[in-house]
Write a structure and sequence with these properties.
Oligomer: heterodimer
CATH architecture of chain A: Beta Barrel
Helix content of chain A: 10-25%
CATH class of chain A: Mainly Beta
Order of helices and strands of chain B: HHHH
Number of helices of chain B: 4
Shape of chain A: globular
Shape of chain B: elongated
Largest sheet of chain A: 7 strands, mixed
Largest sheet of chain B: none
Number of domains of chain A: 1
Strand order of the largest sheet of chain A: 3-2-1-6-7-4-5
CATH superfamily of chain A: Copper binding periplasmic protein CusF
Distance between the termini of chain A: 49 Å
Number of strands of chain A: 7
Largest interface: A-B, 24 and 28 residues
Radius of gyration of chain A: 18 Å
Structural class of chain A: alpha+beta
Chain lengths: 107, 163
């Protein structure tokens, strides 16, 4: 049984580490391109992974404009793996997406 | 004229849920440690009961925190504090869940020989969990007292409080 203890503790530690989620980055205001890493529809939130591996956590606001081929589309169109161009305004350390343009959709 | 918001809004459930498990988990650690040191079954039992209730409460707190997250985050100036608070809370949840599993194993009559080992590992989990719990609470307090997370700010003329 003593032998079973170590794997148990390791298991709990692994689960704990796995539950820690994504470490997100704070960037300056500007336009960024990346790939959608995760979509949380109930929070109208997306995680965008930049080419350098940093992940941006973006909560849509009432002012956020979402487009695809220059046409406004619904949030539900967004999916993991889509490539997007986001215009961000940094307020404090909060990143407000001003616009999100879908450049390519994941099949 | 502004209107006073309903008190029982979604983001209020989180502060209502967090304080009981916070106290129970800290005291479960102290009582379990005391029970082990002075070899008192009574303190160990009380510690275990607090641990089980506190761990269940911790997961309820995490659930209500997730509900509050989506509402308050858009008004924060530094959401990275919320992110750190959330990550720390998951650590607390899993560490005390691990401790609870070890406590349950310790109740098994077939494992009497290693009960002390189980208790020591359990208390290590609880001590680390308590330290992370203090940090989680500190981050939560920063969100409320420095960024007014979930806090309604009355209008300058307090009009909404007039009859």
């Amino acid at each position: 049984m003593k032998r079973a203890l170590l794997p148990l503790v390791v298991l709990v530690a692994l689960i704990a580490m796995n539950s820690c989620g994504e470490k997100t980055a704070v960037v300056e205001s500007g336009i960024y391109q990346g790939t959608i890493y995760k979509v949380e529809p109930e929070k109208t939130e997306i995680y965008v992974e930049l080419s350098d591996g940093r992940i941006l956590e973006l909560y849509f606001t009432d002012q956020t404009v979402l487009t695809k081929k220059d046409e406004t589309v619904e949030f539900s169109v967004l999916a993991k793996g889509d490539t997007v161009e986001v215009q961000i305004e940094k307020i404090g350390k909060r990143l407000d997406p001003i616009s999100v343009a879908i450049k390519g959709q994941h099949e | 004229m502004s209107e006073l918001p309903n008190f029982w809004r979604t983001e209020i459930w989180h502060p209502l849920a967090v304080h009981l498990p916070l106290v129970l988990l800290i005291f479960s650690t102290l009582f379990s440690l005391l029970g082990l040191i002075i070899k008192s079954n009574m303190w160990s039992t009380v510690g275990r009961v607090f641990l089980f209730i506190g761990t269940a409460g911790a997961w309820v707190s995490i659930y209500t925190g997730k509900l509050a997250d989506a509402i308050v985050v858009r008004g924060l100036c530094d959401p990275t504090v919320l992110e750190a608070h959330e990550h720390a809370a998951y650590w607390v949840g899993w560490l005390f869940t691990g401790a609870s599993l070890l406590a349950l194993l310790g109740l098994n009559g077939k494992l009497l020989k290693i009960r002390t080992v189980l208790s020591v590992v359990m208390i290590i989990c609880m001590l680390i969990g308590s330290a992370v719990l203090v940090r989680t609470g500190h981050l939560g307090a920063q969100l409320v007292y420095q960024q007014a997370a979930g806090v309604y700010t009355p209008s300058a003329d307090c009009n909404e409080f007039s009859e």
